Amino acid sequence: MIIITNRNVQEGKKPEELFGRKFHDKNPDELRLATANKIGGEWKVDIIDEHFEAENEDEEKMFASEKVFKDLQLKMKKEKKNCLFFVHGFNNDFSDVLERGYQLEQNYNVEVVAFSWPANGRDGKGKFLGTATGTVSYLSDKREASKSYSALDRTLEKLGNYFRKYDEESMACNQHLSLFLHSMGNYLLEHYTLTGGYDKTCIFDNIIMAGADVNNEGHEDWVDKLKFRKRLYITINENDKALLSSRLKLGEEQKPRLGHWIKNLTAHIPWYIDFSDAAHVNDNSHSYFEGGPVEKNKNIKHVFNKMFNGEKVETELELDRDLNLYKVR
């Protein structure tokens, strides 16, 4: 797994705590790159210094991040695996990100590249709020998400440059690259688009906005401007407990959330996928792409497997024309 993050480093901590609860020491725009592997139930995380390097004198010198991307392309080509670029949501520490990325790799046979921002429910002074529940912690994470758009922009720009450089037939992996945003990760994407960042997402085959913690109202204004190669999917669960709770938070007006509202689905570009009536989806109502829902309901796993692997799935689903959404049972 590859990790790209604007979190601070915690020297001397366990691998799963290597990246902390605050922004990079310089500013929120600064990035660090790491690789993570789970071996025998234990995590091994290596920070990669961004410097010029070459394996031998005959090879072209390149930045370490380019070499990591090149190695990923070669692995995808050899193992016939697709890649999922994952942006997590509210109250996920680094350990949570690692475990979720690992589960995505295991469940859907993909290579995961995770963009991790400091979503930990901190107060305005940077103090950790324990279980990170309640309005203060929620609004804290919203602030951190809105401050991370530039780091995401830099990440997508560099990824796009490498993607185009190695897109020639001799080097291209000929596999799919898709973008998966969960929960408040979609709020980060929304803020990113406010800066005009639409074109840099065109490297992705599919974009999957799952359990989106953004306002339903007006979402078409920015969602319809996103660029991609194949499909944009927005998943919905009317009974999403986390989104029902976030709607009640104070501060900036919390209108019906896109990820739990089956009305006003008026954007022209996305396919809306409704999981509300799918068996076992409420075993994990906010993260129904993992755990009980995918273990107990093969239809749920099949739909996410298609989306995450850059394929289309809507042709296999029941269409509700009145609501403009597709149903998963």
Describe this structure in words.
The protein has 329 residues and is α/β, with parallel strands linked by helices. The chain has one domain. Helix content is 30%, strand content 22%. The protein is built from nine helices and 15 strands. It has helices at 64-79, 94-108, 135-147, 149-165, 185-194, 219-223, 241-246, 292-296, 298-308, and strands at 2-5, 7-9, 19-23, 32-39, 42-48, 52-53, 62-63, 82-87, 110-116, 177-182, 206-210, 231-236, 271-274, 318-320, 325-327. It has an eleven-stranded mixed sheet, with helices on both faces. β12 (231-236), α7 and β13 form a beta-alpha-beta unit. α3 packs across α5 (185-194) and α4 (149-165) crosses α5. The longest helix has 17 residues, at 149-165.
Protein traits:
329 residues; alpha/beta; two-stranded antiparallel ribbon; 9 helices; globular
List the helices and strands and how they pair.
Layout: E1 2-5, E2 7-9, E3 19-23, E4 32-39, E5 42-48, E6 52-53, E7 62-63, H1 64-79, E8 82-87, H2 94-108, E9 110-116, H3 135-147, H4 149-165, E10 177-182, H5 185-194, E11 206-210, H6 219-223, E12 231-236, H7 241-246, E13 271-274, H8 292-296, H9 298-308, E14 318-320, E15 325-327
Parallel strand pairs: 1-9, 8-9, 8-10, 10-11, 11-12, 12-13, 13-15
Antiparallel strand pairs: 1-4, 2-3, 4-5, 6-7, 14-15
